[in-house]
Amino acid sequence: MSGTKHARKGIAMVDLHKPEVKKLIKKRDWDALRTLAESWPMPELADLLADLTKPAGTILFRSLPKRIAVEVFSFLERSTRDAFLKELTDEETGALLAGLSPDDRTSFLEELPERDRQRLLNLLGPAERAEARTLLSYPEGSTGRLMTPEYVAVRPDWTIGQTIAHVRRMGRDSETIDAIYVTGAAWKLLGVISLRQVVLAEPAETVAGLMITPAISVSAFDDREAAALGMERYDLTVLPVVDSDGVLVGIVTADDVLDVAVEEATEDIQKAAAVAPLEIGLKEASASLLYRKRILWLVALVFVNAVSGGIMARFEATIAALVPLVFFLPLLIDSGGNAGSQSATLMIRAMAVGEIRTNDWASLLLKEAGVSTALGLTTGLVAWGMGIWRGGFALGLVAGLSMFLVVVLGSLIGVSIPLLLKKLKLDPATASSPLITTVIDVAGVLLYFSVAAMILDQ
């Protein structure tokens, strides 16, 4: 579904026409309002329906031609869709769901609780119901749930003339005809031929002589990120999806992959801030939901941070011997946390786009060790000078050495945690900045006061 993925840019048509829209609503001139709205792009019409009060929005939505109502439904926010469905009859709801493209229908149905999903599935005709259940049978988050089974396939022994005739017959129901797939007798994917090749070829030429083989494909059971990475790597706008036997079962198009990229980026950003991922937009989220998504990490980090206080209590004598030590504590642990966040961010990003794999860990750690040593020496020299200026040679030595060690340690932790999580088959984005900085804070406090106690002999 596209509802939460199409942000408004610039001045929307709904804003430009808002005075006119309000006037028509006040006059209850639904025919004129429908005529005006039908000329708008679907995302703008979805904005209008969301902005209208419930009775007015429902009346306008029900008055739209079926083709437009079906298309605009896929752009609506989840709460708006749910509100409209409550006002529709079962017959209207069934017709609306049947008109959705298979991938949009799957995306909508998978968001629903099981009871509501089954009720809506029963409103579909036998063919659409079987198709929806097939797509929903694939694992959650897999490419199978993202694909559409509406594509054009041809045989290798067909002539270009036969191919063009087939495309004209079947292309109307296909999501796209930019790529035409070549399959064998058992529907196994053999290759691909572009529409451009078909149009420019001689009618007597055969598909086998023009097709590109093997076709780049993705498994229906692969994570949907695999589809996004495959399309990005091979610069494709459509990607065929096969089952475990290599049988062509559907296609994934660029608009679906763009939605995936936005969702995954949003999820990673939220995890990076120690927020459990939101399945809906911030505007739709209730205060109680936002509380539940944020409180767990905050409470967990409070307990972890409490460890730092316990460590400081153990070094009370060292602090009493040189009180200015406390002045440098925030500087040191913040620097270590910043260094760790830098390396973790670079690592998570590289893993997300497929630049690196877990078996690269040795070379990455070695490289980070060299970089962090240089960073530690530079920041350590700065801290050394500040320490001498603030409290003499002993404090300068403690501050400089601790800064060096904390930055090196923080950088290595920042690289290691995402790699470890990936090895454990967990999302590396869970290695969020708050988590990284909290771990480094505890390690930094222990390291700082251990160095101080050693140098000051306390």
The number of helical runs is 21
**Main sheet attributes: strand count, strand direction, barrel closure:** 3 strands, mixed
Q: Report the span from N to C terminus.
A: 64 Å
CATH homologous superfamily label of the largest domain = SLC41 divalent cation transporters, integral membrane domain
Tell me the total number of β-strands: 6
Q: Beta-strand level of the residues, as a percent range?
A: 5-15%
Overall 3D form: globular
Biggest β-sheet: strands ordered side by side in the sheet: 1-2-3
- Give the SSE string: HHHHHHHHHHHEHEEHEHEEHHHHHHH
CATH class of the largest domain: Mainly Alpha
CATH topology of the largest domain: Tetracycline Repressor, domain 2
Instruction: State the share of residues found in helices, binned by percent.
Output: 55-70%
Looking at the overall shape, the CATH architecture of the largest domain is: Orthogonal Bundle
Low-confidence stretches: 1-11
Return the structural class: mainly alpha
Return the average pLDDT rounded to an integer. 80
**Number of domain units:** 3
Radius of gyration: 29 Å
Task: Briefly say what this structure is.
The protein is mostly helical. It has helices at residues 13-16, 18-27, 30-38, 42-51, 54-63, 66-73, 78-87, 90-99, 102-110, 114-121, 126-136, 160-170, 195-200, 224-234, 254-272, 287-314, 316-321, 325-352, 361-391, 393-423, 433-456; strands at 153-154, 179-183, 189-194, 218-219, 238-242, 248-253. The chain folds into three domains: 3-141, MgtE N-terminal fold, CATH 1.25.60.10; 153-259, CBS-domain (Roll); 287-456, SLC41 divalent cation transporters, integral membrane domain (Tetracycline Repressor, domain 2).
